[in-house]
């Protein structure tokens, strides 16, 4: 009995359970907001290379300068700017090519770039619906598909590569309605969650695990317009079951978990990061 209890309590090197020592990471939409919070977490957990991509080169470079100044990253670790428009397949192909110049593999892909659009039902534009679906769903699929060979290169059953997709609680519940309704966004995030489940089953045997995160409101450039329309950050924070909005370390903690050995039996899951907001909707 004592031997059995001992075997069950002796975890295999607990100290390294959340470590990302030496891992190579690609982050789409990494120049600000949730992507930048994640980049900071990956580097501070030990990643050796973090490729930051978004459309604007100057924004990517600025983000990399801030990340490279982090005091507690691994010695020699680097954030590298590789601008690309995730919505354009040629740009994603170019991104893979550029990344390949400085690494022969990728361990973690954070498919995070996304867009939203708010407009009432009767005038909700076809072009906006298409733009949101393209970036939030099709480009996520294309990015994962085109990075799969690099993700597979170093992956093993014991140390699988990871794909993390940024969805939203708008993809689990109902998104914003009325004057600033986000029909395309909500549908796109539901699709992103389900796409991730399909890819988990398809890519699991290739030792690539796929999971999504579903954040509630985190102050960011994208979220600020909708937050203002809903009464502002303070009011929204008070209305949340845990009394606050999302913080950078909520994102960092979740993605480091999913990317580390601690998360290596998690495949096809969707982790909500919303302080309970999803379950408080429709309260009487
Ligand atoms: N903040 C929230 O409350 C919240 C909640 C749930 C889910 N999310 C999701 O979180 C993700 C990040 O959003 P965020 O709040 O961090 O917004 P954000 O601060 O506005 O950041 C968006 C990032 O995506 C990049 N981007 C936009 N379009 C792109 C494209 N076509 N190709 C490549 N990069 C592109 C932006 O850089 P460039 O402009 O340089 O391209 C930027 O780096 C999105 O998928 C969003 O739907 C956010």
TrEMBL record:
GO molecular function: oxidoreductase activity
InterPro entries for this protein: NAD(P)-bd_dom_sf, Sc_DH/Rdtase_CS, SDR_fam, Sec_Metab_Biosynth_SDR
Entry-linked SUPFAM superfamilies: NAD(P)-binding Rossmann-fold domains
Keywords, sorted A to Z: NADP, Oxidoreductase
Family in the record: Belongs to the short-chain dehydrogenases/reductases (SDR) family.
Name the UniProt record assigns to this protein: Rhamnolipids biosynthesis 3-oxoacyl-[acyl-carrier-protein] reductase
Record organism: Lepraria neglecta
């Amino acid at each position: 009995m004592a031997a059995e209890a001992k075997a069950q309590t002796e975890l295999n090197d607990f100290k390294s359970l959340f470590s990302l020592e030496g891992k190579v990471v690609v982050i789409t939409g990494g120049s600000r907001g949730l992507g930048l919070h994640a980049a900071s977490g990956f580097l501070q957990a030990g990643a050796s290379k973090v490729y930051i991509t978004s459309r604007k080169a100057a924004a990517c470079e600025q983000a990399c300068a801030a990340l490279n100044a982090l005091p507690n990253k691994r010695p020699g670790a680097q954030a590298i700017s590789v601008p690309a428009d995730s919505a354009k397949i040629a740009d994603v192909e170019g991104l893979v090519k550029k990344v390949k110049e400085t690494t022969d593999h990728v361990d973690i892909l954070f498919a995070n770039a996304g867009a939203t659009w708010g407009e009432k039902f009767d005038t909700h534009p076809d072009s906006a619906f298409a733009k949101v679906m393209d970036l939030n769903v099709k480009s996520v699929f294309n990015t994962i598909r085109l990075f799969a060979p690099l993700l597979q290169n170093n992956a093993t059953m014991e140390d699988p590569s990871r794909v993390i997709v940024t969805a939203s609680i708008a993809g689990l519940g109902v998104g914003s309605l009325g004057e600033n309704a986000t029909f395309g966004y909500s549908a796109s995030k539901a699709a992103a969650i389900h796409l991730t489940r399909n890819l988990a089953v398809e890519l699991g045997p290739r030792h690539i695990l796929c999971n999504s995160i579903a954040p509630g409101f985190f102050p960011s450039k994208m979220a600020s317009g909708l937050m203002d329309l809903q009464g502002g950050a303070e009011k929204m924070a008070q209305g949340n079951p845990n009394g606050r909005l999302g913080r950078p370390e909520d994102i960092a903690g979740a993605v480091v978990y999913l990317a580390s050995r601690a998360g290596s039996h998690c495949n096809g899951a969707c982790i909500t990061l919303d302080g309970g907001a999803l379950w408080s909707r429709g309260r009487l």
